[in-house]
Amino acid sequence: MAEEVRRFRYPGPSDPGGRDRGPERGLSHDLLYNHMVISTVQVMGKGQGTGLHHHNDQDGYWMVLAGKARFCGEGDTHYGDLGPMEGIFMPRYTRYSFESIDDEPLQILRVSQLRPVEGKSQARAMDTGNEVKRFSYPGPTDSRARDRGPDKGHSYDLLYNDSMISTVQIIQKGQGNALHYHNDEDGYWLVLSGRARFFGEGDIHYGDLGPMEGMYTPRYIRYGFECISDETLQVLRVSQMREMEGKPGTPGMVVL
Known about the structure:
The protein is mostly beta strands. The protein folds into 2 domains: 13-118 and 128-136, Jelly Rolls, CATH 2.60.120.10; 146-241, Jelly Rolls (Sandwich). Helix content is 0%, strand content 49%. The protein contains no helices and 22 strands. It has strands spanning 6-9, 19-20, 27-33, 37-44, 49-53, 58-66, 69-72, 78-82, 86-90, 96-100, 106-114, 133-136, 146-147, 154-160, 164-171, 176-180, 185-193, 196-199, 205-209, 213-217, 223-227, 233-241.
């Protein structure tokens, strides 16, 4: 099944389109769902959360947008208390739970990388080798951001393993990424501040995105984007790594 470029947005915690997940689990706003990625924003009041569970078909990327979340595991395992712009990666087969622990409602972004089911949760030897990992984004002025040159701005690294790459790109007006493609990753982009213009080949205009608006760019699709606002563009990238299958147009290649 060929995937297409898709736009999505998070309209905020009070939007009536959120799914009611019951009195203990709060609301969920669906952003993206295809054969590679599931993305939602979950909204929870203090004390609401998820029970201890695991997934054997997906790796989970979580980033707190507002409020505070406590992540726990089996027994006395405490993975950490996370505030805004702090996150955690949960590999498949890992048992975990989280709950809202602040008076401010928790708004937490989820981006799950779907993976082939390779056995029951007890089959730990079949895991990818990824580990639970915390990360945080300290903001656009942090000195650890990488300088990507005068045309491309800066990039702050959050996560890198065999399942996902995540960064925040920090770009000033007129800076951006030229037209390009990837044959080993699908891209998930969410604007945190400023405005971005996404474009494709020729006259293709994928859209102008503001805060909490995003774009999914499947592999082999040529795209670029630039900052079009006076305000600094901060755009979160969560790329799903895939096995490389060749260049676009290779005879007999099936683009999934």
